[in-house]
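sry for the spam today, last one i promise. C-alpha cells for design, 316 residues
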C-alpha cells in the first residue's frame, strides 16, 4: 500500500480520486507544488449569481458554415440590425423606392385641380343686337365690354333725341362732360350745337336724334383705335336702321371718315351731299360739317358750318 503523501501548504486541494490520477501520470509532485507568494492578495472569487433575463425576441440569424480546425480564428461579427430594419421585402411590396429611401413623413399628395371649362367666346356686337329695339340696345350699350374703353368710362353714351327722327346728328366720341352725364353733346359744344339746329328750325327734343360713332370716351379724348371702331360701329348702324332718318349730319373729320369709309380730309368732304346705303337698300343723304368743339377753337369757320346747315335744310 502506498504511503500517504503530505500536501504542502498553499498547494491546491484535490480529492483522492484526482490524486491517484495525478500519480499515474507522474504529475502529482508538480501539481501539489506550493504556488509562489503573490505580491498582493488575490481577490477572492465572487460567486456568479444568475439574474432573471426578460425574454427578447432575437432576430433569426443563419448559422455560419463549419470552419475547419486549421482555419484562422473567426472575426467577431457585429450584432444584427433591429428586427424593424430587417423587415422582409415582401412586406414592402407596392411602396415606391422614393418613399422607402426618404427621411421624414411622406409627402402629401398634390390636390386634384378640376379642369376649368373654357370660357365661351363672346358674341359679336352685330350678332347680339341683330333683333334689338332701341330700348334693348340702350341697355346693351350700357353693359358693353366689347373693347378696352369700357374699363375707363364713367357712363356709356347711347344717344338722345326725338322720334320719329328727321335728322340724325353723328359726332365722334363722348368727351369729359358727356362721359360724366351720360348724354351726347353737353357743355359748351352742346350749347353751340343746339343753337345751330335752332337756326334751321330743328330741336333735339322734337325731331333730331344725336349720337356718336363711339359710345365710350377714349382716354384724353384721343381718336378711337381701329379695333374700338370695329367693336362699336354696329351700334351706330343698328341705330340708323331703327331710326330711319331722312338725312344724316356728320360732325368732325373722324366721324365723317368712319361713316363714309374714306380717308379724305373734312375740307374736301364738306360742301356737298354724300349718300349712305343701308342694308335695306335705302340711300340716306349725308352732309359733313365741322365739329362744334372745333368751331369754339376756330370761330372763323362758323360761316362754313352755317353753309353746311343750310345745305342739309334745303333737301326737304
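last one done:
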Amino acid at each position: 500500500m502506498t504511503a500517504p503523501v503530505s500536501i504542502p501548504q498553499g498547494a491546491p486541494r484535490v480529492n483522492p480520486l484526482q490524486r491517484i490520477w495525478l500519480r499515474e501520470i507522474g504529475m502529482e509532485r508538480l501539481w501539489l507544488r506550493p504556488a509562489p507568494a503573490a505580491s498582493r492578495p488575490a481577490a477572492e472569487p465572487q460567486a456568479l449569481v444568475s439574474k432573471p433575463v426578460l425574454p427578447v425576441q432575437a432576430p433569426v440569424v443563419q448559422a455560419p458554415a463549419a470552419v475547419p480546425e486549421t482555419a484562422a480564428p473567426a472575426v467577431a461579427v457585429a450584432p444584427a440590425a433591429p428586427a424593424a430594419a430587417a423587415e422582409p421585402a415582401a412586406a414592402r411590396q407596392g411602396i415606391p423606392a422614393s418613399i422607402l429611401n426618404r427621411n421624414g413623413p411622406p409627402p402629401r399628395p398634390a390636390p386634384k385641380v378640376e379642369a376649368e371649362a373654357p370660357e365661351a367666346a363672346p358674341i359679336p356686337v352685330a350678332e347680339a343686337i341683330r333683333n334689338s329695339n332701341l330700348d334693348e340696345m340702350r341697355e346693351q350699350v350700357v353693359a358693353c365690354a366689347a373693347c378696352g374703353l369700357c374699363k375707363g368710362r364713367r357712363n356709356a353714351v347711347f344717344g338722345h333725341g326725338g322720334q320719329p327722327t328727321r335728322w340724325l346728328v353723328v359726332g365722334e366720341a363722348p368727351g369729359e362732360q358727356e362721359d360724366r352725364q351720360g348724354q351726347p353733346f353737353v357743355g359748351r359744344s352742346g350749347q353751340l350745337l343746339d343753337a345751330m339746329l335752332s337756326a334751321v328750325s330743328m330741336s333735339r327734343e322734337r325731331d333730331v336724334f344725336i349720337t356718336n360713332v363711339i359710345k365710350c370716351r377714349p382716354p384724353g379724348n384721343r381718336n378711337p383705335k381701329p379695333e374700338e371702331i370695329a367693336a362699336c360701329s354696329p351700334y351706330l348702324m343698328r341705330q340708323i336702321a331703327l331710326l330711319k332718318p331722312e338725312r344724316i349730319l356728320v360732325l368732325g373729320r373722324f366721324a365723317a371718315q368712319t361713316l363714309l369709309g374714306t380717308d379724305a380730309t373734312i375740307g374736301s368732304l364738306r360742301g356737298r351731299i354724300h349718300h349712305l346705303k343701308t342694308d335695306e337698300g335705302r340711300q340716306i343723304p349725308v352732309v359733313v360739317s365741322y365739329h362744334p368743339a372745333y368751331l369754339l377753337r376756330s370761330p372763323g369757320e362758323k360761316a362754313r358750318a352755317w353753309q353746311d346747315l343750310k345745305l342739309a335744310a334745303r333737301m326737304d
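The longest strand covers residues 283-289. ok im logging off now
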